[in-house]
Write a structure and sequence with these properties.
The complex is a heterodimer of chains A (382) and B (137). With 382 residues, chain A is an alpha/beta fold. Chain A is built from 13 helices and eleven strands. In chain A, α3 packs across α13. The two termini of chain A are 16 Å apart. Chain B is mostly beta strands and 137 residues long. In chain B, the strands form two sheets. Chain B has a five-stranded mixed barrel. In chain B, strands 2-1-3 form a three-stranded antiparallel beta sheet. The longest helix of chain B has 7 residues. The radius of gyration of chain B is 15 Å and the shape is globular. The chains are: A alpha/beta (382), B mainly beta (137). At the A-B interface, α4, α5 and β5 of A face β4, β5 and β6 of B.
Chain lengths: 382, 137
């Protein structure tokens, strides 16, 4: 039984949305549902995705399901930090594939302004192994910075090449009305910005945001009744690497992404060169460079060269993050994967406006949770 | 002994490997070895996922290691704000296990390079806490 994505929705990503989490989710849900003329009663099951440590509400799934008019049909809660909503899509896919449900809504959200900056700082330190790594003052940028340093040493990747990822992101952010930062940045600005965790500087890092996304999945039979332009889930792979840095065997690439990509390509019966447009998890500039390599868009160690040669711009070998990516959109943890899927779905439906990659048939989403802990790779085709 | 003595900021107090702190206070950095399969673990573990054995023995590390990667943090989580900038490092011990620790503040930034020899050393902190750091070998 084939599974399709029939609808996608997203709120603007902002620094402080000024509304409650239930209202934020409603906005993304309404955006997806009105586009395909579906009513809440037609949704058979829902999956709510977020990182709960940012929520005041305990067990938000029940509350959001109620506010969206989805009860008494079942709702489930999915969490894998920054890749929560693609994990939700995998669960929804499995529900439909197994015949348990026909139409599933996956709603991802995060209101990171829900808690104070001091509370954010406190949680930030607990993302690593709290017994053996957090006592040394670690945090997300430091984790990726260690990968950047190792990548530079092994392959000669440069700070300029990393900055060029942000320059591309800035260029496309101007064309995405939902992005939090809509401004072009120069290479010099990136290189002169203050250091966060060396060699990563301010523009090498994405920012916390508020936002929600929604993906509506349906069985083949239902999909054909709902829309003329269903987008098919052709491949879906997932893998988990060790959470602790001391157990990692690869310091220049993310094993969870390599493994998830392998599964997704195999299932879709395609090769990396067949991908027309991709959304990768650029929480940091080095993360996008490693993604090029881990997804097979270039050989290991050649990611820096790929961006330097502008091969990931529209018109290049493989356009990547033409919506501005996390670096410009902002990164509302639980909503991010759904937003990436939305971008690819709109591309495959030829609805991407000024960022349309002409004739895109196959798209790929790479969404990573934590510092390379949870990897989801999803291949979509029209 | 409570494990909460470990680290500048600690998050847990109870663990089956709490004796690690006792050894650290004696100046020893200890790993655990699974008696059944022989695998060495650092940071120490009480349980072996290879064979589900809980029969482990303590074993001292030489402290000799090489720098694998590092970053200097200028921005810190709660409890470390007064400590910036500090350099977080991942090193490989001669026994093959890896260690995550701060580089000693004695090391100058231009002296630091991947592959350099380091010495893993216990470090007493203020208010009776204890940790380990990576010093120049």
């Amino acid at each position: 039984m084939d599974v399709a994505i029939v609808g996608v929705g997203q709120t603007p990503f902002t620094r402080n949305c000024g509304i409650s989490i239930r209202e934020l989710c409603f906005e993304a849900f309404k955006n997806a549902m009105e586009d395909i003329n579906l009513t809440p009663k037609e949704i058979d099951a829902s999956i709510i995705c977020s990182a709960p440590e940012y929520d005041k509400q305990r067990s938000p799934a029940g509350l959001i399901s109620e506010y969206l008019g989805l009860t008494p049909r079942p709702t489930f809660y999915a969490e894998s930090i920054c890749s929560s909503s693609t994990t939700g899509v995998k669960i929804g896919y499995s529900f439909i594939k197994s015949g348990l449900h026909d139409i599933v809504a996956v709603i991802g959200f995060q209101k990171m302004s829900e808690i104070s900056s001091a509370e954010v700082q406190e949680r930030m330190g607990r993302g690593a192994d709290i017994q053996w790594e957090s006592p040394f003052g670690t945090m997300m940028p430091a984790g990726y910075a260690m990968y950047a340093r190792a990548h530079m040493q092994k392959y000669g990747t440069t700070e300029e090449q990393m900055a060029k990822v942000k320059v591309k992101s800035g260029k496309y952010s101007l064309l995405n009305p939902l992005a939090m930062y809509r401004r072009a940045v120069t290479l010099e600005e990136c290189l002169q910005a203050r250091v966060i965790a060396s060699p990563l500087k301010m523009f090498d890092c994405c920012a916390n945001a508020d936002g929600a996304s929604c993906v509506i999945l349906a069985s083949k039979e239902k999909a054909k009744k709902i829309t003329d332009t269903p987008v098919w889930v052709a491949g879906i792979g997932s893998a988990t690497d060790t959470l602790s840095t001391t157990s990692r065997t690869n310091l220049t690439g993310l094993n969870c992404a390599i493994e998830a990509a392998k599964q997704a390509y195999k299932m879709a019966h395609i090769e990396p060169k067949d991908v027309d447009v991709a959304e990768v998890h650029d929480c940091f500039t080095i993360a996008e460079i490693m993604a090029y390599e881990n997804l097979g868009f270039c050989k290991p160690g050649e990611g820096g060269k790929l961006i330097e040669e502008s091969q990931t711009y529209i018109g290049g070998k493989i356009p990547v993050n033409v919506d501005g990516g996390l670096l410009s959109k902002g990164h509302p943890i639980g909503a991010t994967g759904g937003s990436q899927i939305r971008t690819i779905v709109l591309q495959l439906q030829e609805r991407a406006g000024k960022t349309q990659v002409k004739g895109a048939e196959i798209g790929l989403v790479h969404n990573i949770g934590g510092i390379g802990v949870y990897g989801n790779v999803i291949i979509l085709r029209r | 002994m409570s494990f909460s003595k470990f680290g500048k900021v600690s998050f847990i107090s109870e663990t089956k490997v709490a004796d690690f702190v006792k050894y650290l206070e004696e100046g020893k950095i200890m790993a655990t070895r699974c008696i059944k399969c022989g695998k060495l673990y650092f940071p120490p573990r009480a349980d072996c996922p290879e064979d589900l054995s809980t029969d482990m023995t303590w074993e001292e590390l030489s402290g000799k290691c090489k720098l694998l990667t590092y970053t200097t943090a200028y921005f810190a989580p709660s409890g470390f704000e007064d400590h910036v900038p500090y350099t977080i490092a991942l090193a490989e011990c001669e026994e093959g296990v890896k260690v995550y620790a701060l580089l000693s503040k004695d090391l100058k930034e231009d002296e630091v390079h991947i592959g350099m020899n380091l010495k893993l050393t216990p470090l007493k902190l203020q208010n009776g806490k204890i940790t380990y750091e990576l010093k120049k070998a």
